[in-house]
Design a protein that fits this description.
With 280 residues, the protein is α/β, with parallel strands linked by helices. The chain has two domains: 173 residues, Rossmann fold; 87 residues, N-(1-d-carboxylethyl)-l-norvaline Dehydrogenase, domain 2 (Orthogonal Bundle). The protein contains eleven helices and eight strands. An eight-stranded mixed β-sheet has the order 3-2-1-4-5-6-7-8, sandwiched between helices. The longest helix is centred in the last third of the chain and has 17 residues. It starts with 5 loop residues before the first helix and ends in a 15-residue tail after the last helix.
Length: 280
């Protein structure tokens, strides 16, 4: 199966499917570095908010001409795209259905990448006719954190990964190749242990979130601690990820997930709801 050429990647658009917390950030980063970006969502109001956010952020990045359009028509979003990045909620059933649709709608050579933070792309290819073009491309909250982890679905053409590494670097991102299929990729496996233990410390009433964040920042020279970061990601997303880890691995404690469930039941989702471990 052909993979897009460098010229394709330089002249054809990128489609971002989903305009939530990460979708809009990905769109902003790509548009702000010269990519032609089409942002899709079924929620018109969320799409409008995402466009305003993406344009504001993109305007601070190196490319002065921002080519960003939005649409609620997925076929229009992926038309002629060399790359499609999926950034919808972290639910396996939704992502599997979407990839089946993208397999039909996207150009035959387009790379199909999932931004999932915990699901392997090998779980999404059951109804994909060309799995050679499917991969994980996990973004970390750009433009604040610009690492992107690229991981094969098990059948990904190495040329697709090489092209992604080249183009993402051009877009001001830092691509890393995950050399073996891994739930949690590279950094998230390390981060999960820190996050889980921080939640357990609060669950056991050993310390409150602000103290944990303060000592973490003091010792590591970081600008944000674990709870500030979880609030930005969204506590519902954090719980979805933890549930997935627990379904795959024995011995993961219940305490951190119980704490997250209580907070979500109270409507405390983090920054997006105005309150999580902190008020916003």
């Amino acid at each position: 199966m052909p993979i897009p050429s460098m010229r394709d990647a330089e002249t054809r658009p990128v489609a971002v499917i989903g305009s939530g917390t990460l979708g809009r950030r990905i769109a902003a980063m790509l548009a702000g570095h010269g990519a032609v970006v089409r942002l899709f969502d079924i929620n018109e109001q969320q799409l409008q908010d995402a466009e305003a956010y993406a344009r504001d952020v993109a305007a601070t990045l190196p490319q002065p001409q921002i080519d960003l359009t939005t649409t609620t028509d997925m076929a229009e979003a992926v038309r002629d795209a060399w790359l499609v990045v999926e950034a919808i909620p972290e639910r396996l059933d939704l992502k599997q259905a979407l990839f089946a649709d993208l397999d039909e709608l996207a150009p035959a050579d387009a790379i199909l990448a999932t931004n999932s933070s915990s699901l392997k792309s090998s779980l999404l290819i059951g109804e994909v006719s060309k799995p050679e073009r499917v991969m994980n491309a996990h973004f970390y909250q750009p433009p604040d954190f610009n690492a992107v982890e690229l991981m094969s679905c098990g059948e990904t053409d190495v040329a697709a990964i090489d092209l992604m590494r080249t183009m993402l670097a051009r877009y001001g991102l830092d691509p890393f190749h995950v050399r073996k299929e891994s739930t949690g990729f590279i950094y998230n496996r390390v981060w999960a242990a820190i996050k889980r233990e921080a939640l357990m410390v609060v669950e056991e009433s050993v310390a409150d979130p602000a103290d944990i964040d303060s000592i973490f920042c003091s010792l590591h020279g970081a600008t944000m601690g674990p709870f500030q970061l979880m609030d930005r990601v969204g506590l519902d997303v954090v719980l979805d990820i933890e549930e997935h880890y627990a379904s795959e691995r024995d011995g993961i404690p219940d305490g951190p997930r119980n704490l997250l469930r209580r907070m979500i039941a109270e409507g405390k989702l983090g920054v997006k709801s105005g309150e999580g471990f902190y008020r916003y």
